[in-house]
Design a protein that fits this description.
The protein is an all-alpha fold. It has seven helices and no strands.
Length: about 120
């Protein structure tokens, strides 16, 4: 059973409809982040970071053609992804001041939303 689970995991491919849905939601989030950054609205930025971080993580896993692990494992498993947007992306998303975290989220959204034909 363990071997079969490993086979399923290694051959997993994110369904196009799921990836497109993630990209759509993150594109809307990016617009909101830009508006909050332009207005220097830290409360709104903090809210957007809090409510959209999980969706960004889903996007990173989807782009890697891996199913999203439970939240209790995402921290431990993020280093196992083979297609990382940049070194320390996970830390940049979760640590630092509001502005730097918002910029990291925007870079991740751009990376997730870029040319889906290359990744799926």
């Amino acid at each position: 059973m363990i071997s079969e689970a490993k086979d399923i995991y290694s051959s997993y491919s994110t369904p196009k409809k799921e990836y497109d849905s993630i990209r759509y939601l993150l594109s809307a989030t990016r617009i909101k982040l830009l508006a909050a950054l332009d207005n220097k609205d830290e409360k709104r930025l903090s809210y957007l970071l809090s409510t959209n971080t999980w969706k960004v993580l889903e996007g990173v896993w989807a782009k890697n053609n891996k199913p999203m692990p439970p939240s209790s494992l995402a921290y431990a498993k993020h280093d196992e992804l083979t297609d990382a947007p940049w070194e320390d992306w996970f830390d940049d998303l979760l640590t630092g001041n509001i502005g730097s975290r918002a910029n990291a989220m925007m870079k991740l959204i751009d990376w997730i939303c870029e040319s889906s034909e290359n990744s799926l």
